[in-house]
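Hmm, what's this shape?
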Amino acid sequence: MKYYLIIFFFCSLYIFSGCFKQQDFDRVQGSDLLTFTFVPQTVLADGASPATISLKIDSKAIPSKRKLLLKTSLGSFVGGNGDSIIVEADEQFKAGALLVSTRTGQALITATIAGHDVMDTTHITFIKAYPESITISVDSFSINNNYNKEILLSASLKRNNGGVPSQGYSVEFRVVNTTGNVVGFFLNGNPNAITDGNGRTNIRYIATDAASPGKHLAIAFTQQADGSTISDTTYFFVTK
């Protein structure tokens, strides 16, 4: 009887040692711990349209091993710290995050879990988003007609969903007098300016001595997705 008990003890020990231990979880390859799903894989780069990143971790992970650090090569995580965010898997071992961008290109996602870096080879592609409205403003409604005075013209581009067009969009500025003649010049010698990640851009204008006093119109132009032009105007006064 004693002999059988000894055999039973060693068999039980062997079976128990063959069961999963957390150390086994720490030793496996990162790619075995985590799977990615991106929906959709192609997204507008307007800062408002998100790609949903869904993650599923191995069901053997204990609660202390369910936190993930996500990093992206492009864009920013909603509710995160720019290009990174910490998420925690739920009781179904699932986690998720939202990624947006105003820059076009491909975003590669890397997740760190239990000391393992896992990179998914599938990219999220952010494509160009076009403006649907434009607003122009000035920092002063009066400027002297000499070379020592300047005025700042600013344009803001928006999309109907609350987002902005993709970063690097071109806006053309123009200033005309009451007879419709183009007057003055822009400080950089170029009437075009490029938007930033907030859909905004600005340019400095000088009226010059030749500009006649009176009301002047400042105009900002840009193009929509179909090639049509949208514009907005404001005014300021040139004084002697």
Observations:
- The chain is about 10% helix and 45% strand.
